[in-house]
Design goal:
The protein is of the alpha+beta class and about 150 residues long. Helices cover about 35% and strands about 30% of the residues. It has one domain (about 10-140). The protein has a five-stranded antiparallel sheet, covered by helices on one side.
């Protein structure tokens, strides 16, 4: 009968180190991939929401063709009590908030030859461990461009 041989402590430590060398990079790649996916997903959500808000504003402007830009360029008066206003990091159209994200800045500027340009800067929370991501979007009414 041959004697039973057990693993020595050195062999066990070597195997654990080799496993660690393989597992740590795989875990790091997975975490980086998850963070990148989260960032892109939140950014796409915010861009979609900003685009939707601009479409609501453009529809509202079409209903109020005699709009007037406020003197501070942070709002539009549509007449008869209808207003688009940026205040307290909220963009409100007739009292209803258009975006879930905090709006850091919003301005309405008239364009030469008619129309307006909306400048919108929003802060998007990616996750609790990272700083807010700032997004700056520019929209023209009526639309200008090759599309």
């Amino acid at each position: 009968m041959t004697p039973r041989r057990a693993f020595t402590l050195v062999e066990i430590i070597v195997v654990l180190c080799l496993m660690g060398i393989l597992i740590v990079p795989v875990g790091t790649v997975m975490e980086v991939g998850y963070r990148h996916f989260t960032t892109l997903s939140r950014q796409a959500d915010a861009k979609t929401e900003c685009q939707h808000a601009s479409e609501l504003i453009f529809g509202w402007l079409a209903q109020h063709p005699k709009y007037r830009i406020d003197t501070d360029n942070h709002g539009i008066d549509g007449g008869a009590g209808a207003r688009l206003r940026w205040q307290d990091q909220k963009l409100r159209l007739e009292g209803k908030s258009l975006l879930d994200w905090p709006v850091r800045d919003f301005s309405v500027t008239p364009r030469p030859g008619g129309g307006i340009t909306l400048n919108l800067e929003a802060e998007v929370l990616l996750d609790s461990r990272r700083p807010l991501m700032r997004m700056h979007e520019i929209y023209d009414y009526p639309r200008v461009g090759p599309w």
